[in-house]
Amino acid sequence: MSESADQQASTQPGAGTLLIDDVRLVDAERDIASGWVLADATGILDLGAGTVPEVPAGCQRVAGAGRVLTPGLVDMHSHGAGGGSFDGGPEEVATALATTAAHGVTRSMLSLVTSSADDIVETLQSIAAHADKQASDAGADSEDPAGAGILGVHLEGPFISPDKAGAHDVALMQHPTPELIDRFAEAGGGWLRYFTIAPELPGALESISHAARQGIRMGVGHTVADYATTRAAFDAGATLLTHAFNAMPGIHHREPGPIIAALDDERVTIELILDGVHVVEPVAAHLWQACRGRLALITDAMSAAGFGDGNYMLGKLAVTVENGVAHLTGTDTIAGSTLTLDSALRRAIGLGVGLQEAIAAATSVPAASLGLADRYGTLAPGQAADFVLWGDDMTVTGVFRDGREMRSER
């Protein structure tokens, strides 16, 4: 019996190999004016400047036409997009990831708002089963990339302050305990990577240390903590500030608070929602200058991102989106964003941030903050074959994940 055409193709030299040439390679460490990159599903094989090396027969070749090529974007804090929520089951997860991929995001953390402990466990189990299947399919050379790209899960609640609830249900908030963290971690099956926590809550510092020892990232957020309490959280093992300025005290000349505590600590990565709504641009520009190299652009997007105005749900709370701004229905409380990460990147460049630094804030900085710098966020051999091709105005013209083209406007 003869092999199928697909089987024959997979055994040919160069089958499954991708060459992108005539591109400007840009990441946190390099800016190569005329470069090329060779990759396959396992990752980047080689890259360089000038003359392209001899490539195997059957290699897919993409002409970059001098455009910028960067690593795939990493969104470490997002709740959904395209009408799909990350707490809405596998179909909604796939919808949201497909939408964000169209905007250059090749890897995402799935952020969940506050729910009951039982509901969190159920959602974590569902996401873990879905993510395990996608990882298995990718290993089997799956032809369906839409559901791939999950880095892990971020629990933005329930360990947050009712005084800075934002778009979270106060009735479902809880004090953190190591036992509850362990319950969530077990339900997440290894996919739970990040908690947001208010360090002033009873048991918070012990819980931060407990989670950090397991490799789970802890971020200070939705908090009324003062400077000293925030510094204690960082000393206990927290390494992130969740969406700086939002749902926390601002900077006061006699009460510096969590923002100054994070700026003072080189161990801390600082998230920023750069949509002009959550943090206005002059403040964002000052923040960027104060923490060069450790600012991570995030979207904190909810399901309306890339979808449009209307009525939505964020967890179990009703949200109304008007003119691209999401509020809890009937209130002036901001309920996530409708931001896409490519738009945040363009806004950063508009602030005067250099191209390499802006790219880093959406790639290598978030990847490193999650302990994933060995695989994601830079252009180097051994890194995932995740790429974005950008047009002259820094709009997305091509997206590749694991060496496969996901979107092209070539």
TrEMBL record:
Tell me the cofactor note. Binds 1 divalent metal cation per subunit.
Is Phosphoprotein there in the keyword field? no
Q: Which UniProt keywords apply?
A: Carbohydrate metabolism, Hydrolase, Metal-binding
Q: Where does substrate bind?
A: 167, 246-247, 254, 278, 334-336
Q: Which residues bind Zn(2+)?
A: 156, 222, 243
| Classification via Pfam families | Amidohydro_1
The molecular function GO annotations come to: metal ion binding; N-acetylglucosamine-6-phosphate deacetylase activity
Q: Which InterPro entries match?
A: Amidohydro-rel, GlcNAc_6-P_deAcase, Metal-dep_hydrolase_composite, Metal_Hydrolase
- Tell me yes or no: is Nucleus among this UniProt entry's keywords: no
Active-site residues, Swiss-Prot/TrEMBL: 300 (proton donor/acceptor)
Required cofactor(s): a divalent metal cation
Q: Supply the SUPFAM superfamilies for this chain.
A: Composite domain of metallo-dependent hydrolases, Metallo-dependent hydrolases
What are the GO BP annotations of this UniProt entry?
N-acetylglucosamine catabolic process
* Highest taxon, organism lineage: Bacteria
Task: Name all Amidohydrolase-related domain ranges.
Answer: 68-405
Family, similarity comment:
Belongs to the metallo-dependent hydrolases superfamily. NagA family.
PANTHER family assigned:
N-ACETYLGLUCOSAMINE-6-PHOSPHATE DEACETYLASE
Q: What is this protein called?
A: N-acetylglucosamine-6-phosphate deacetylase
**Lineage, uppermost ranks:** Bacteria, Bacillati, Actinomycetota, Actinomycetes, Micrococcales
- Which gene is transcribed and translated to give this protein? nagA
